[in-house]
């Protein structure tokens, strides 16, 4: 059945996206392989944060550069994602260490009672790594949406300043913000729905639910993912604005330099030609 679903997904991607849809299909499995690699590295005893950062950056490069090519939009988006990941690792560690969402919950104790609790894995770092992995796809999506739209604004109106481009990017981000927030909420809520039903069956009170460790963990992930989705908007807007104007200025300087150089060469050629002409005239007069 999994093979059938994969085949249906492949056919739909090719029908809708053509070659890019085919690339998208293979990148899904490449990224899945990278996640498995991350699990293996954590199982070997690596601190989960460092491999997670590296794997997330590789996934970002694959999604942005392999699918969309290397250009101003994808480079600006990748820089934004990289900066946000570095910043957000610190934010996640700060909040995660104070909310105590790491480790096993009461609901999972029975399921894992036959294995040892001493796994040798830093559960706090693992919990923070799970938050980072959960938000990477969303921030890439938001970042490339801002960069692509802002680049089109710049192409159609290249006279806009960095400040004006930034304001345009923020206006675009405001339109994305509402849908992004609801997407995150329902994505996490869908994964949490089974546990809600379980709480209902065993007659958990509302106070008991909101004070349970598993609820606190899911709620924290929703809030942190939402914060990341909000922060990527101004970050992508300012980086894309600066890159568009900076590269445009560099291109203009290069064109001016080439024109000046061509003008210098042309004047030299004209001077040499005039000198040779005068020399020929002198030779004829001498004869």
The ordered string of helix (H) and strand (E) elements is HHHHHHHHH
Count structural domains.
2
Shape descriptor reads: globular
Number of distinct helices: 9
- Strand portion: under 5%
Structure classification: mainly alpha
Helix proportion range:
over 70%
Topology:
Elements (H helix, E strand, L loop, with lengths): L1 H16 L1 H25 L5 H20 L3 H28 L6 H4 L13 H34 L5 H40 L4 H5 L2 H74 L1
Helix pairs in contact: 1-2, 2-3, 3-4, 3-6, 4-6, 4-9, 6-7, 6-9, 7-9
Description:
The structure is a single chain. By secondary structure, this protein is mainly α. The chain folds into two domains: about 1-45, no CATH class; about 50-275, no CATH class. About 85% of the residues lie in helices and about 0% in strands. It has nine helices and no strands. The protein has helices at about 1-15, 20-45, 50-70, 70-100, 105-110, 125-155, 160-200, 205-210, 215-285. Helix 1 (about 1-15) crosses helix 2. The longest helix is centred in the last third of the chain and has 74 residues, at about 215-285. It is globular and about 65 Å long. Mean pLDDT is about 75; it is low at about 255 and about 280-285.
């Amino acid at each position: 059945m999994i093979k059938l679903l994969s085949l249906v997904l492949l056919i739909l991607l090719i029908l809708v996206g053509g070659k890019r849809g085919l690339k998208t299909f293979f990148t899904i499995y490449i990224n899945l392989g990278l996640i498995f690699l991350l699990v293996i590295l954590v199982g070997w005893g690596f601190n989960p944060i460092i491999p997670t950062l590296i794997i997330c950056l590789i996934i970002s490069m694959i999604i942005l550069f392999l699918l969309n090519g290397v250009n101003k939009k994808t480079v600006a988006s990748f820089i934004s994602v990289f900066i946000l990941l570095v910043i957000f690792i610190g934010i996640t560690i700060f909040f995660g260490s104070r909310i105590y969402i790491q480790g096993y919950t009461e609901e999972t104790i029975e399921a894992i009672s036959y294995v040892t609790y001493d796994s040798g894995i830093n559960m706090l770092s693992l919990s923070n790594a799970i938050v980072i992995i959960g938000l990477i796809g969303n921030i890439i999506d938001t970042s490339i949406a801002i960069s692509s739209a802002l680049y089109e604004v710049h192409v159609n109106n290249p006279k806009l300043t960095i400040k004006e481009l930034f304001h345009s990017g923020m206006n675009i981000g405001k339109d994305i913000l509402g849908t992004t927030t609801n997407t995150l909420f329902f994505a996490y809520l869908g994964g949490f729905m089974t546990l809600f039903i379980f709480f209902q069956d065993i007659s958990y009170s509302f106070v008991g639910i909101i004070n349970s460790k598993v609820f606190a963990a899911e709620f924290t992930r929703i809030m942190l993912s939402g914060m990341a989705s909000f922060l990527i908007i101004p970050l992508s807007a300012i980086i894309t604005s600066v890159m568009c104007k900076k590269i445009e200025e560099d291109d203009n300087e290069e064109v001016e330099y080439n024109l000046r150089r061509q003008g210098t060469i042309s004047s030299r050629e004209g001077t040499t030609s005039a000198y040779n002409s005068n020399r020929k005239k002198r030779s004829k007069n001498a004869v």
